[in-house]
TrEMBL record:
KW Iron (keyword) present: yes
GO cellular component, one term: plasma membrane
Lineage of the organism: Bacteria, Bacillati, Actinomycetota, Actinomycetes, Kitasatosporales
Membrane topology listed for this record: Peripheral membrane protein
UniProt source species: Streptomyces fumanus
Keywords: ATP-binding, Cell membrane, Ion transport, Iron, Iron transport, Membrane, Nucleotide-binding, Transport
The protein's name in its UniProt record: ABC transporter
Record InterPro entries: AAA+_ATPase, ABC_transporter-like_ATP-bd, ABC_transporter-like_CS, P-loop_NTPase, Siderophore_ABC-ATPase
Stretches assigned to the ABC transporter domain: 19-255
Top-level taxon of the source organism: Bacteria
Gene3D superfamilies from the UniProt entry: P-loop containing nucleotide triphosphate hydrolases
Matches recorded under Pfam families: ABC_tran (PF00005)
Protein backbone atom coordinates (compact mmCIF):
# COMPACT_ATOMS: atom_id res chain seq x y z
CA UNK A 1 0.00 0.00 0.00
CA UNK A 2 1.40 3.40 -0.97
CA UNK A 3 1.86 6.15 1.58
CA UNK A 4 -0.65 8.32 -0.29
CA UNK A 5 -3.32 5.62 -0.07
CA UNK A 6 -2.69 5.13 3.61
CA UNK A 7 -3.06 8.84 4.36
CA UNK A 8 -6.31 8.92 2.40
CA UNK A 9 -7.77 6.13 4.53
CA UNK A 10 -6.68 7.91 7.72
CA UNK A 11 -8.41 11.09 6.55
CA UNK A 12 -11.55 9.11 5.74
CA UNK A 13 -11.58 7.62 9.24
CA UNK A 14 -11.07 11.03 10.80
CA UNK A 15 -14.31 12.40 9.33
CA UNK A 16 -16.46 9.63 10.82
CA UNK A 17 -18.43 11.20 13.65
CA UNK A 18 -18.70 9.53 17.05
CA UNK A 19 -22.50 9.37 17.08
CA UNK A 20 -24.79 8.57 14.16
CA UNK A 21 -27.99 6.81 13.15
CA UNK A 22 -28.00 4.79 9.96
CA UNK A 23 -31.26 4.05 8.11
CA UNK A 24 -33.21 3.57 11.34
CA UNK A 25 -36.89 2.83 11.74
CA UNK A 26 -38.19 4.03 15.10
CA UNK A 27 -41.46 2.82 16.55
CA UNK A 28 -43.39 2.39 19.80
CA UNK A 29 -45.13 -0.96 19.68
CA UNK A 30 -46.69 -0.93 16.20
CA UNK A 31 -46.76 2.86 15.80
CA UNK A 32 -43.96 3.90 13.45
CA UNK A 33 -42.52 7.35 14.15
CA UNK A 34 -39.74 7.44 11.55
CA UNK A 35 -38.52 5.21 8.73
CA UNK A 36 -35.15 5.13 6.93
CA UNK A 37 -33.87 8.02 9.04
CA UNK A 38 -30.15 8.75 8.96
CA UNK A 39 -28.32 11.50 10.87
CA UNK A 40 -24.70 12.29 11.65
CA UNK A 41 -23.95 14.32 14.77
CA UNK A 42 -20.88 16.41 13.95
CA UNK A 43 -18.16 16.01 16.55
CA UNK A 44 -17.66 19.02 18.86
CA UNK A 45 -20.89 20.61 17.61
CA UNK A 46 -23.85 22.04 19.44
CA UNK A 47 -26.51 20.25 17.41
CA UNK A 48 -30.15 21.21 17.93
CA UNK A 49 -33.10 19.19 16.65
CA UNK A 50 -36.23 21.19 15.85
CA UNK A 51 -39.62 20.45 14.34
CA UNK A 52 -43.35 20.50 15.12
CA UNK A 53 -44.93 18.43 17.87
CA UNK A 54 -44.93 14.66 17.29
CA UNK A 55 -42.42 14.86 14.42
CA UNK A 56 -39.95 12.45 16.06
CA UNK A 57 -37.49 14.81 17.78
CA UNK A 58 -37.51 13.18 21.22
CA UNK A 59 -37.84 9.72 19.68
CA UNK A 60 -34.65 10.28 17.68
CA UNK A 61 -32.87 11.51 20.82
CA UNK A 62 -33.99 8.39 22.71
CA UNK A 63 -32.57 6.22 19.95
CA UNK A 64 -29.28 8.10 19.92
CA UNK A 65 -29.01 7.64 23.71
CA UNK A 66 -29.69 3.86 23.64
CA UNK A 67 -33.07 4.22 25.39
CA UNK A 68 -34.98 3.09 22.28
CA UNK A 69 -33.83 0.22 20.07
CA UNK A 70 -34.46 0.83 16.37
CA UNK A 71 -36.79 -1.66 14.68
CA UNK A 72 -34.42 -1.52 11.72
CA UNK A 73 -31.06 0.11 11.10
CA UNK A 74 -28.51 0.93 13.76
CA UNK A 75 -27.17 3.66 16.00
CA UNK A 76 -23.37 3.82 16.15
CA UNK A 77 -21.27 5.19 19.00
CA UNK A 78 -17.54 5.28 18.29
CA UNK A 79 -18.08 2.85 15.44
CA UNK A 80 -19.93 0.24 17.53
CA UNK A 81 -23.63 -0.59 17.55
CA UNK A 82 -24.72 1.17 20.71
CA UNK A 83 -27.00 -1.67 21.89
CA UNK A 84 -24.04 -4.07 21.83
CA UNK A 85 -21.94 -1.94 24.18
CA UNK A 86 -21.84 -2.40 27.98
CA UNK A 87 -24.12 0.08 29.72
CA UNK A 88 -21.32 1.59 31.82
CA UNK A 89 -19.16 2.13 28.76
CA UNK A 90 -21.98 4.04 27.10
CA UNK A 91 -22.62 6.01 30.30
CA UNK A 92 -18.98 7.12 30.46
CA UNK A 93 -19.22 8.43 26.90
CA UNK A 94 -22.75 9.73 26.54
CA UNK A 95 -24.93 11.53 29.06
CA UNK A 96 -28.67 12.09 28.76
CA UNK A 97 -31.10 14.56 30.29
CA UNK A 98 -34.52 13.07 29.48
CA UNK A 99 -37.66 15.14 29.01
CA UNK A 100 -39.34 13.96 32.20
CA UNK A 101 -37.24 12.86 35.16
CA UNK A 102 -38.54 11.67 38.53
CA UNK A 103 -36.26 11.83 41.54
CA UNK A 104 -36.45 9.20 44.31
CA UNK A 105 -38.40 10.31 47.37
CA UNK A 106 -36.36 11.93 50.10
CA UNK A 107 -33.19 12.54 48.07
CA UNK A 108 -31.21 15.73 48.45
CA UNK A 109 -29.89 17.83 45.61
CA UNK A 110 -26.27 16.91 46.35
CA UNK A 111 -27.10 13.20 46.45
CA UNK A 112 -28.99 13.33 43.16
CA UNK A 113 -26.19 15.22 41.42
CA UNK A 114 -23.76 12.70 42.91
CA UNK A 115 -25.54 9.91 41.03
CA UNK A 116 -24.01 11.34 37.91
CA UNK A 117 -20.70 9.90 39.10
CA UNK A 118 -22.02 6.31 39.04
CA UNK A 119 -20.41 5.39 35.69
CA UNK A 120 -17.01 6.27 37.14
CA UNK A 121 -17.37 3.99 40.17
CA UNK A 122 -16.27 0.39 40.34
CA UNK A 123 -14.95 -2.34 42.60
CA UNK A 124 -11.53 -0.71 42.67
CA UNK A 125 -12.70 2.90 42.57
CA UNK A 126 -15.07 4.20 45.20
CA UNK A 127 -16.20 7.76 46.00
CA UNK A 128 -13.25 10.14 45.90
CA UNK A 129 -12.26 13.74 46.47
CA UNK A 130 -12.43 14.17 42.68
CA UNK A 131 -16.04 13.00 42.66
CA UNK A 132 -16.81 15.51 45.39
CA UNK A 133 -15.13 18.29 43.42
CA UNK A 134 -17.00 17.46 40.22
CA UNK A 135 -20.36 17.41 42.04
CA UNK A 136 -19.70 20.80 43.65
CA UNK A 137 -18.58 22.30 40.33
CA UNK A 138 -21.61 20.91 38.49
CA UNK A 139 -23.94 22.45 41.08
CA UNK A 140 -22.09 25.76 40.89
CA UNK A 141 -22.31 25.86 37.08
CA UNK A 142 -26.06 25.32 37.15
CA UNK A 143 -26.74 27.71 40.03
CA UNK A 144 -27.99 25.12 42.53
CA UNK A 145 -25.04 25.01 44.94
CA UNK A 146 -27.05 26.80 47.62
CA UNK A 147 -29.72 24.08 47.31
CA UNK A 148 -27.31 21.21 48.01
CA UNK A 149 -28.99 20.10 51.24
CA UNK A 150 -32.59 20.67 50.10
CA UNK A 151 -34.85 17.78 49.14
CA UNK A 152 -35.44 17.66 45.39
CA UNK A 153 -39.20 17.19 45.79
CA UNK A 154 -39.38 20.52 47.68
CA UNK A 155 -38.03 22.50 44.72
CA UNK A 156 -39.83 24.40 41.98
CA UNK A 157 -40.00 22.92 38.49
CA UNK A 158 -37.27 25.25 37.27
CA UNK A 159 -34.98 24.44 40.18
CA UNK A 160 -35.48 20.71 39.66
CA UNK A 161 -34.64 21.07 35.98
CA UNK A 162 -31.33 22.73 36.84
CA UNK A 163 -30.55 19.96 39.35
CA UNK A 164 -31.05 17.32 36.66
CA UNK A 165 -28.76 19.26 34.33
CA UNK A 166 -26.17 19.36 37.13
CA UNK A 167 -26.41 15.57 37.44
CA UNK A 168 -25.84 15.21 33.69
CA UNK A 169 -22.81 17.51 33.92
CA UNK A 170 -21.39 15.48 36.82
CA UNK A 171 -21.33 12.47 34.53
CA UNK A 172 -18.51 14.26 32.64
CA UNK A 173 -19.19 12.70 29.26
CA UNK A 174 -17.80 14.02 25.96
CA UNK A 175 -21.29 13.72 24.45
CA UNK A 176 -24.32 15.19 26.19
CA UNK A 177 -27.92 14.79 24.98
CA UNK A 178 -30.64 17.06 26.35
CA UNK A 179 -34.35 16.65 25.66
CA UNK A 180 -36.00 20.06 26.02
CA UNK A 181 -33.61 21.32 28.72
CA UNK A 182 -35.41 24.67 29.05
CA UNK A 183 -38.76 23.12 30.04
CA UNK A 184 -40.28 24.78 33.15
CA UNK A 185 -37.73 27.61 33.08
CA UNK A 186 -38.53 31.30 32.86
CA UNK A 187 -36.85 33.31 30.09
CA UNK A 188 -33.84 34.32 32.22
CA UNK A 189 -33.10 30.74 33.24
CA UNK A 190 -33.70 29.49 29.70
CA UNK A 191 -30.93 31.79 28.52
CA UNK A 192 -28.74 30.80 31.48
CA UNK A 193 -29.07 27.10 30.60
CA UNK A 194 -28.40 27.68 26.91
CA UNK A 195 -25.42 29.89 27.73
CA UNK A 196 -24.11 27.05 29.89
CA UNK A 197 -24.58 24.61 27.01
CA UNK A 198 -22.70 26.98 24.70
CA UNK A 199 -19.86 27.22 27.23
CA UNK A 200 -19.64 23.43 27.50
CA UNK A 201 -19.41 23.24 23.73
CA UNK A 202 -17.00 26.13 23.16
CA UNK A 203 -14.74 25.91 26.21
CA UNK A 204 -14.74 22.18 26.94
CA UNK A 205 -15.17 20.85 23.40
CA UNK A 206 -18.15 18.69 24.32
CA UNK A 207 -20.56 17.51 21.65
CA UNK A 208 -24.09 18.54 22.61
CA UNK A 209 -27.36 17.41 21.07
CA UNK A 210 -30.52 19.16 22.27
CA UNK A 211 -34.19 19.09 21.37
CA UNK A 212 -35.64 22.61 21.54
CA UNK A 213 -39.10 23.97 20.78
CA UNK A 214 -38.02 27.59 20.37
CA UNK A 215 -36.67 28.01 16.85
CA UNK A 216 -35.07 31.36 17.64
CA UNK A 217 -33.17 29.86 20.57
CA UNK A 218 -32.09 27.02 18.31
CA UNK A 219 -30.90 29.39 15.58
CA UNK A 220 -29.00 31.53 18.07
CA UNK A 221 -27.16 28.74 19.90
CA UNK A 222 -26.80 25.81 17.49
CA UNK A 223 -23.75 25.29 15.33
CA UNK A 224 -25.64 22.53 13.51
CA UNK A 225 -29.41 22.40 13.08
CA UNK A 226 -31.54 19.38 12.13
CA UNK A 227 -35.11 20.20 11.05
CA UNK A 228 -37.53 17.26 11.21
CA UNK A 229 -41.07 16.82 10.00
CA UNK A 230 -43.05 13.56 10.02
CA UNK A 231 -39.95 11.57 10.95
CA UNK A 232 -37.90 12.91 8.04
CA UNK A 233 -34.95 15.29 7.89
CA UNK A 234 -36.15 18.27 5.89
CA UNK A 235 -32.91 20.24 6.18
CA UNK A 236 -29.72 20.27 8.21
CA UNK A 237 -26.68 22.49 8.45
CA UNK A 238 -25.58 25.74 10.03
CA UNK A 239 -28.62 27.88 11.00
CA UNK A 240 -27.51 30.78 8.80
CA UNK A 241 -27.42 28.41 5.81
CA UNK A 242 -30.79 26.70 6.21
CA UNK A 243 -33.20 28.86 8.23
CA UNK A 244 -35.37 30.64 5.68
CA UNK A 245 -39.00 31.71 5.57
CA UNK A 246 -39.62 28.87 3.12
CA UNK A 247 -38.12 26.28 5.47
CA UNK A 248 -40.13 27.56 8.45
CA UNK A 249 -43.35 27.34 6.45
CA UNK A 250 -42.49 23.85 5.16
CA UNK A 251 -41.56 22.47 8.59
CA UNK A 252 -43.91 24.37 10.90
CA UNK A 253 -46.63 25.63 8.55
CA UNK A 254 -45.93 29.19 9.74
CA UNK A 255 -45.71 32.22 7.49
CA UNK A 256 -42.92 34.51 8.66
CA UNK A 257 -40.00 36.72 7.83
CA UNK A 258 -36.45 35.72 8.70
CA UNK A 259 -34.19 38.64 9.59
CA UNK A 260 -30.78 38.99 11.20
CA UNK A 261 -30.83 38.90 15.00
CA UNK A 262 -29.57 42.39 16.00
CA UNK A 263 -27.59 40.89 18.90
CA UNK A 264 -25.92 37.91 17.22
CA UNK A 265 -26.48 38.12 13.48
CA UNK A 266 -28.07 34.68 13.52
CA UNK A 267 -31.46 34.06 11.85
CA UNK A 268 -34.44 35.50 13.72
CA UNK A 269 -37.92 34.25 12.84
CA UNK A 270 -40.63 36.92 12.94
CA UNK A 271 -44.10 35.38 12.51
CA UNK A 272 -46.47 37.12 10.12
CA UNK A 273 -49.09 39.25 11.84
CA UNK A 274 -52.45 37.62 12.58
CA UNK A 275 -54.22 39.82 10.05
CA UNK A 276 -51.72 38.95 7.31
CA UNK A 277 -52.05 35.24 8.00
CA UNK A 278 -55.85 35.51 8.00
CA UNK A 279 -55.74 37.35 4.67
CA UNK A 280 -53.59 34.64 3.09
CA UNK A 281 -55.89 31.93 4.44
CA UNK A 282 -58.91 33.74 3.01
CA UNK A 283 -57.22 34.11 -0.39
CA UNK A 284 -56.49 30.38 -0.46
CA UNK A 285 -60.07 29.54 0.46
CA UNK A 286 -61.58 31.76 -2.23
Amino acid sequence: MSAATGNGMDNQRSIVNRLSAEDVTLAYDQRVIAEHLSVQIPDHSFTVIVGPNACGKSTLLRALSRMLRPSQGRVLLDGEVIQSMPAKQVARTLGLLPQSSIAPDGITVADLVGRGRYPHQGLLRQWSAEDERVVRESMRQTGVAELADRYVDELSGGQRQRVWIAMALAQQTPLLLLDEPTTYLDIQHQIDVLDLCADLHEEQGRTLVAVLHDLNHAARYATHLIALRDGRVIAEGAPKDIVTAELVEEVFGLRCQVIDDPETGTPLVVPAARTARARVAADKAS
